[in-house]
């Protein structure tokens, strides 16, 4: 049933139409429809005064005016002209074709998205857009259109089309979506937004590597800076995921090397304070005040907001060496090409890059290229130049549109092609290696999505066939190039941490966190600026003395409770023990005076011996977590402390001694002490390995390697001191002392050779395990071992013994071909590796053992860009000898 308004429209007669036209003409000062005039004459007609009353319903007048939306209200005052639309012209021609001149009828264009939901459902034309445009124009029409004005001035949402108004429905308009019937992708903005949502968005790329690195550093600073919560909260939230990943990486990789920060305490404070430095410092000092109120311990400031902020920045700077964050913003071709040029590196290979191989191999017949576009360009179906840029860089289209450039499809197709050609023989070993690497981070799992182009860590680890050095050329060049690409960000993050330390003047403000910051900065700066590193470690020593954190303790080997208590105490006082050990070893290697006055921290005693012990600081209850989680850290600190004590003894009794008899006694004592520490370390690793299987990050193989490298460095320091003393006696022309000194020098040389060779054999075992790749300051001294072995003269090949038979003297390598249980099997054989008989140091043995050390340097090149250069120097020494 039709409404009254609809019935009036349907039952309109010609007389009503004429009356409507007369009413409109009278309002517009036009002649009536009965006068036959053309439109040209109508424009010059005189104005008519007055307004004739309308006898038609308001709905009819409103419906008539709705058909002509092209009113010109600016011309209503004064001389008014009227131009009919195509719709009104056709309407007038149909109703009164005899009195109006017909206007040319134009076909209306089809409009998309201009229909309400009801009209779209019944597939009818809708007039809602026309009403909306009329409502947006201010009108001064008389009472004929008053009802329309009331509808137009109604509250928002009440405007409706004529059909919905007639049926009493609520007129709604839902924006039309793109048609899902066509699946072809185009180059529109919607596809670009989809690519950004899938692969991550990216700011416009900077023209230089330094500017790209500074953009990421700014994001890190936004999360570590002290500012109110409401100030730039967007930047803080965006950067928090990156900061959390960096902190997880530090405690998973770097913490075992320098356990100066208590992981349990730091994690609790960081999570409770939501990463805010001010709240973290308040929680740290509150816990210290609670402990001091119970046992009247001296006042010690754990940290301040400034020190906490700087500590977060230093941890990020350390973790930047072991993550892919430096490559997140891409690199420029010019900077990366400098590190991969074949002229500057002897290890360059034309087939080192997967993309370079795709770009250079051109088939004789032109075919369709497959697997030559990044993921986002494949989604948008556009041409991609990822095969023409340096590996690790973004394609030009992703850089232009701000999309993270990923190449998962290219890598998957290459893996499938390799699997078809080589079979499944090599995939089992690779799967085992990658699974063992992924387990190393399970203890510190990060659930945030990765926004970077991930790089397989397997690329820096040689396979079992490449351990001997035959298949590592492409990996050497890859490590060298990656190290150069990461250098800008790593140095920028380090500079940011140094700027914060100088800004807050942490050198002159003693606190526990300041000591941790200075120690970590010293380990990063010592190889770049030794003078500044010396200043930092001396400031840390001064803070320890001012706060009264120095301590000495005794260890009763016959009392198990004493061992447990000492390990707990070492973990609680790690802010003192770690800097002391670093300073002790560095003082011997660099031949400088130590910063700390105490010559030892832990002293062993037998049953019945009682020695004076300085009072120790009371331990905070939260720090006494036992040995379950930090057993690897405690044993690592214990081994390093013993080597530090040996280093202090070497510096006092060998480097400064002139008498030959005193030197002989001191050297034998030092050699015996180093061998004892190594034996204890091997036995501890074999015993504690089963207890640490659930904590791969604290696996003993890491700190066993640290102790072996440190022991070899101490042997080299003794040999260097004896060589200098021998040269001094030769200059003084003292025959008796010179002969004794030469014999002592030969003994020191043999012991140094044996220690370096055992370290090389141990490195050979752990090369495929990915342990060396995550090491730092201690393993960076491996070039000294490699250069020493490369320069040592060899012995003649024994009669009747081939090169294959000489390899039998080395430990068996069957453990290399296992997958998940490889580290456990290596741990069981660690003690046997230390006691195994080494074969003669022939030319073949020398080449093999030096190649193992070179492979270790190339793994270190993932984090330290200068290591491949050191490998080049060692390789040059071998080439000079014809090897």
UniProtKB/TrEMBL annotation:
<dbReference type="GO" id="GO:0008270">
    <property type="term" value="F:zinc ion binding"/>
</dbReference>
<dbReference type="Pfam" id="PF00172">
    <property type="entry name" value="Zn_clus"/>
</dbReference>
<feature type="region of interest" description="Disordered">
    <location>
        <begin position="799"/>
        <end position="821"/>
    </location>
</feature>
<dbReference type="InterPro" id="IPR036864">
    <property type="entry name" value="Zn2-C6_fun-type_DNA-bd_sf"/>
</dbReference>
<feature type="region of interest" description="Disordered">
    <location>
        <begin position="415"/>
        <end position="434"/>
    </location>
</feature>
<keyword id="KW-0539">Nucleus</keyword>
<keyword id="KW-0479">Metal-binding</keyword>
<dbReference type="GO" id="GO:0003677">
    <property type="term" value="F:DNA binding"/>
</dbReference>
<dbReference type="InterPro" id="IPR050797">
    <property type="entry name" value="Carb_Metab_Trans_Reg"/>
</dbReference>
<dbReference type="InterPro" id="IPR001138">
    <property type="entry name" value="Zn2Cys6_DnaBD"/>
</dbReference>
<feature type="region of interest" description="Disordered">
    <location>
        <begin position="35"/>
        <end position="60"/>
    </location>
</feature>
<feature type="compositionally biased region" description="Polar residues">
    <location>
        <begin position="35"/>
        <end position="58"/>
    </location>
</feature>
<feature type="compositionally biased region" description="Low complexity">
    <location>
        <begin position="422"/>
        <end position="434"/>
    </location>
</feature>
<keyword id="KW-0804">Transcription</keyword>
<keyword id="KW-0238">DNA-binding</keyword>
<protein>
    <submittedName>
        <fullName>Potential fungal zinc cluster transcription factor</fullName>
    </submittedName>
</protein>
<feature type="region of interest" description="Disordered">
    <location>
        <begin position="334"/>
        <end position="372"/>
    </location>
</feature>
<feature type="domain" description="Zn(2)-C6 fungal-type">
    <location>
        <begin position="373"/>
        <end position="407"/>
    </location>
</feature>
<keyword id="KW-0805">Transcription regulation</keyword>
<dbReference type="GO" id="GO:0000981">
    <property type="term" value="F:DNA-binding transcription factor activity, RNA polymerase II-specific"/>
</dbReference>
<feature type="compositionally biased region" description="Low complexity">
    <location>
        <begin position="340"/>
        <end position="350"/>
    </location>
</feature>
